[in-house]
Specification:
This protein is about 45% helix and about 20% strand. The chain starts with a strand and ends with a helix. The chain has a single domain, classed as Nucleotidyltransferase, domain 5. It is globular and about 65 Å long. A hairpin with a 2-residue loop joins strand 8 and strand 9. It has a 7-stranded mixed beta sheet, sandwiched between helices. By secondary structure, it is of the alpha/beta class. Helix 3 crosses helix 7 and helix 3 crosses helix 11.
Length: about 325
């Protein structure tokens, strides 16, 4: 019998804002080899919904934009993300426990940022914990029925000052994003060194040619181009008996469940950081209205907050992201 395949997706949240972190996530499942190219939405339809509107009983795994709108709150996105985490490793009871699952290396860096350093909100923030646990149990049953199981969720969270340093070094934030995604590929490869990997990444823009970037990042592997177009580019990277297939998809979160899940986890992690950010500033200066960090509202927030920077000893380079 052929060895099960690791099927994974990578996506980001927070590429455009001027406040808060950039988060890139990989979500991976072990799938029987004969089902590796099947739609995971179809395989898991007993507990997973492909549409946000159909997720009342099932867990919607969709583009995070379908589940989260600031005016509507975090509840729907949070229920879905924590249910998947619960089915994988148990529902994390706090933000720091969640980060310890997906990015343990981040903890020492958080201490450099006063608005995050002491924060550890209990989870869930808005969703009902009982509903999360019921959804997690349903997912576990569905995974077992289909011989599909979640095997890893990894995040690369780039906090503001670290983001600025990398963008200064590269002079290109697209290069920074690509580097974080490739770091996640390496983390998956380290976790499953002898397993076949099928990895889907969401495309940024209409770029069609990723071969040179992959060859530079994984110089010990032979690269074969399978297809290259504006919509879809696919590559095989091999070393001995080890085979990876990496594809870049336009609107990947609508085409591959692992990419949609990566989008959701990235957005949830970023929103947890923004929750801590706004809580810190509300305590220091209650007159400052909360922000989501995107350009227009972020600029408004800076106008309101800047008079407090000097008294609080705030380093602007650690707070405001370069565009």
């Amino acid at each position: 019998m052929a060895e099960p395949v690791i099927v994974a997706g990578i996506d980001e949240a927070g590429y455009g804002p001027i406040l808060g972190p950039l988060v890139v996530t990989a979500a991976a499942f072990e799938v029987p080899a004969e089902k590796a190219d099947a739609s995971l939405w179809d395989l898991l339809q007993g507990a997973v919904a492909r549409s946000a509107g159909k997720g009342r009983r099932r867990v919607p795994i969709v583009d995070s934009k379908q589940l989260y709108h600031r005016a509507g709150g975090l509840r729907r996105l949070e229920r879905a993300v924590l249910a998947v985490l619960g089915a994988w490793r148990g529902v994390p009871p706090s933000m720091q426990r969640l980060l310890a699952l997906v990015q343990p290396s981040l903890r020492p860096l958080i201490g450099e940022y006063p608005w995050y350093a002491e924060a550890d909100p209990l989870l869930p923030l808005e969703a009902d914990l009982g509903a999360v646990r019921i959804a997690a149990a349903a997912l576990r049953r569905n995974f077992d029925e289909q011989s599909v199981r979640p095997v890893g969720i990894w995040a690369e969270t780039l906090l503001e000052g670290h983001y600025n340093r990398l963008v200064t070094n590269t002079q290109n934030k697209a290069v920074v994003l690509a580097g974080l995604a490739l770091r996640l590929v390496q983390r998956m490869a380290d976790a499953f060194p002898d397993r076949p990997l099928l990895i889907h990444l969401d495309k940024q823009g209409a770029r069609a040619h990723y071969g040179p970037v992959l060859m530079q990042a994984f110089a010990d592997r032979r690269l074969r181009i399978l297809e290259e177009s504006d919509e879809y580019s696919a590559y095989e990277l091999s070393a001995g008996t080890s085979r990876w297939r990496i594809s870049y998809l336009q609107s990947g979160e609508a085409r591959q469940l692992p990419v949609a899940l990566a989008s959701m986890v990235s957005k949830y992690v970023r929103e947890l950081f923004m929750h801590c950010f706004n809580a810190y500033w509300s305590a220091k200066a209650p007159a400052i209205r909360p922000t989501a960090g995107y350009y227009e509202d972020g600029t408004r927030w800076l106008r309101e907050a800047e008079p407090f920077f000097s008294d609080l000893g705030i380093d602007r380079e650690r707070l405001v992201r370069q565009r």
